[in-house]
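Notebook B, p. 112. Complex prediction, attempt 2.
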Amino acid sequence: MNRQIVKLFGLVVALFAVLVGFTSYWAVFDAKALKEKDANKRPLLEQQQIRRGRIVAADGTVIARSVPKGHGASLRYVRRYPEGSLFAHPIGYSFVEEGDSEFEQFHNDELVGEESEFDSILDELRGRKQEGDDVVTNLDPAAQAVALEDLREVGFGAVVAIEPSTGRVRAMASNPPYDPNRIPYDLTELNENEPESPLLNRATQGQYPPGSTFKVVTAAAGLESGTITPETAFSAPSPLEVEGTPLENDFNTSYPPITLDYALTNSVNTWFGQLGQKVGQDQLFETMEKFGFNSTPPIDLPDDQVYESGVYSESHLLNRNDPVDLARVAIGQERLAVTPLQMAMVAAAVANGGRLMKPQIWSRVVDPDGRVVERMDPSQYSQPVSEETAAELTTAMEGVVSEGTGTNAAIEGVPVAGKTGTAETPYNESCGGGTEENQAWFMGFAPADEPKIAIVATVECTTQFGNDVAAPIFRDVAETILNGG
Amino acid sequence: MSARNRELTALVPVALLLTAGFTAVFAQENARLDNLSLLYGAYFLAACMATHIYLRIRLPRADPYLFPLVALLTAFGLVMVYRIDPTLARDQANWFVLGLVLFVLTIHFLRDYDVLERYRYTIAVVGLLLLLAPRLPGIGQQVNGAYLGVKIGPLAFQPAEFSKICLVVFLASYLREHREVLIVGARRVLGVTLPPLKHFGPMLVVWGASMFMLVFIRDLGSSLMFFAAFLALLYVATGRLSFVVIGMAMFLLGAWFFAATVPHVHERVDVWLNPYAHPQKSGYQILQSIFAQADGGLFGKGFAQALIFVPGTHDALLPAAQTDTIYALIVNELGLFGACAVILVYLLIAARGFKIALLAADGFSKLLATGLTAVFAIQAFVIIGGVTRVIPLTGVTLPFISYGGSSVVANFVLLALLLLVSDRARREAESL
């Protein structure tokens, strides 16, 4: 029997080895994936016992802080948002049961003071409790308030304001917002609330037809590829037969040979349609991609809450080899869908001499003792256009505000460069299916000669035009930021 | 060094470990050092010493490592249970003492354990009655859909823990007598060696008992444990792998059939295969157990660091942390390395147990030691395997660590029997 006993012991060894194998799988190899499971509340519960760091606006206004509840073993911290719905987007929320979103989610590691295993062992030996770091943002509460207030008056939509030279995001508003303090009670209701969708950050998740604002991208591609110069002139008849369908200018006006300045100032569709065709799909898409289209914008928000912009077929992005109606892409129609953040990146790049800086909401991380642990380092994402092209685009965009379609964006004593957009969105279910609804846009920067701020404002489902509803928002937010500093 | 001196040397570090463990828990909870941990360490050492002195007198040649290894598990269990709930730890300490008393009594009255052979059918019947008891009206108790407990007046216990010893004793005795005929009388049918039906009858009874447990007691874990121990003994006694394969097929067939028809068993298997289907209900325990392990990493979070309840509430984050899922808590607090150390202790106990079986001269002793060791190792496997999702999670205790009087006491009786066999085997080996 001894031989069998030895074999039986061998089997026990093998079975125990299986136990060690499974334990190591759960405890080590699969641990990261398990911690991210929705059903797993442990990471959040443990974080709840750590005083999560504050989120602070650029001027020191507290956007989010944690308050203690209970004591001893049942001590836990609950998130409070003193400003209510003002910073709901892009800050998001963080609660144990409901999870987290947006900025709170992206900067979670800093906010809970994530440490290496070695550091946390050291801390434990020293008897120190893990504490979260504060994260200071670039957000300007006054600008944020103006943006949200203006939006509330005209409809659903979004505003994004970026400092062109650094990529600092000074305001990001989405209407309708929600009160993050109510998340523990209202999450289901908020989730099911359509078409308002208050949890949607329209600045990064709204996918809208850009309309004429896109003409700036087409013009950039034309100048950059050498297809045209500021002096190049060609006529713009209306209607113009494109891909079997007539393309028209406003009021069906036909133009004699005109240059870029004139065409942009008056937003001449058939001029830009032809330009798009002259530039070609390769060149247009290359410029678009340098501006950030067809990839997730490099902002400090979770990837799944920042959508890509580009020409969509169903839910996938088309690239330079897919068949598209180039003339209509060139004027922001076709199947183009863009986020307000993307258009703000276009405006910021043009304003910054053609250099696109990575948009960033955070500014610095400060530990509980007040030391700055980490500082945001402005970094360039790409250079979509040369400095000369940027200057020429700026001149053309100044014309839009001074004498063209975007006069409502003008600010007393400050030169403004911009572009309006009014994309028709008839029969759109989320707008109620009416025939008169537009997506109204204004994108621009100021001062045009020394840009301090680039702003995009957009309003959905409005019967008005970009100059009527979006340009005034631009003006108000720009004034607030320029006056503030 | 003599066997008993080795045992003595091994017990001191175990008592120190217990002291250190309590110190760690106190330090964590009260942020201060407490002399109480020294006192607990002293009590523990005293209890172990008394038992050790008894062993010195009665079983001087018995295996020197088994008792310290078990003391190690008990010490560890006491600290873990204390860390969960100090009142439970007081119960557990009492049961530890009661276990030692039964340990001593077993050795005292069963010095000549051959008498067990004489009463093997009585023992088998007692074992079956014990299994049946939880279904008896008035004394039976249902826990989580399974009938595991018996309550007579103030005395509550889980009869399956004792029943497993009865079963092993019976099987060891029966197989000792019939192993020859089972081998010789075997016939080959279609290339498969089949045991002779006549002598296999009682074996079928064991299969029937396992199925019975599955259906009426609804205890998948004990059923699995009993049947695996049975197959292990059958294999060691006959050397016929084919018997084991047939037995396994029969068990799986039966389990499959009952899994399809008995809702409780069905649900356990369902949850095992797809825990994410109902993460807040049926899948909660296994998922939380795995999530707790995921937090452990290599080194664990440290004693008394794991979350067992949702802070500020009485909702269990790790259900049954003191019994079924205590292994998940160990992984969480002591990490993969700590958990491996615990598994290693079980493996060392199994190694010593099988060593005793190898040394034993007569068939009954060999089979008894094998069976007791096997059932012990399998019990550890069934619950650790359940918690780590190797097999469906069932309500079996982790021997000597989990909170539970029946488990501690029964396993001390099991240990006593092993040491009895060991002492005789070594005595006979020396006299040769």
